[in-house]
Amino acid sequence: MTALLSTYTALAGKLDRADWVLPTVARFLFAAILMVYFLNSGLTKLGEGVSGLWTPSVGAYAQIFPRVLEAAGYDTDALSFFHKIVVLAGTWAEFALPVMIVLGLLTRLAAVGMIGFVVVQSLTDIYGHSATDAVGGWFDRFPDAIIMDQRALWIFLLLVLVIKGAGPLSFDRAFAPKAG
Questions:
Q1: Alpha-carbon distances, residue 14 vs 25, 138, 160, 167, 169 (angstroms)
Q2: Quick one: which of 111, 123, 124, 125 has its CA closest to 154?
Q3: pLDDT grade, residue 131 (50/70/90)?
Q4: 133-170 burial, b for 16+ CB within 10 Å, e for fewer?
Q5: Membrane-spanning residues where (predicted)?
Q6: If I label 158, which of 5, 43, 99, 106 is the partner at 20 to 30 A Cα–Cα?
Q7: Are 68 and 79 in contact (CB under 8 A)?
Q8: Would you report the helix, strand and coil content of the chain in percent, each value rounded to 5?
């Protein structure tokens, strides 16, 4: 039994020193599972042509401010400057933040931004789109609720990056000052 415990302790010690594994795997899983989701979602918000970067589609407003857009008769010109800025910022964030995370560029900041994005996305789904059937609940024996279950795991993945950073294969590490 002592030999087994010693082997376990030695392996656990090696894992404790493998600080690069968790952030590297977290960034890989973000790229494999969530990056294309967010990039495609961002594409649905762009208007026509190159100017679409500054003139979001009606769908962008419908996704972010569904009730406000409906109250305005689906006329985006009737919405305020605030609404346009929020939609533009959300659209640009949906492109920039995932790319920054995958590249490991300002990873902690990008992960905090993505956590905020996921929280706002979830609240918009619940209150703006009335997606109460997708909320689910924790400790309910069903692991597939879109909001409570899936997005909690997304946030956990992003929290790993906030706490651990990007890992060794990143721009963050390449640009970090060398310890002297």
A1: 17, 34, 19, 17, 20
A2: 111
A3: confident
A4: ebebeeeeeeeebebbbbbeebbebbebbbebbbbeeb
A5: 20-39, 95-120, 152-171
A6: 43
A7: yes
A8: 70, 0, 30
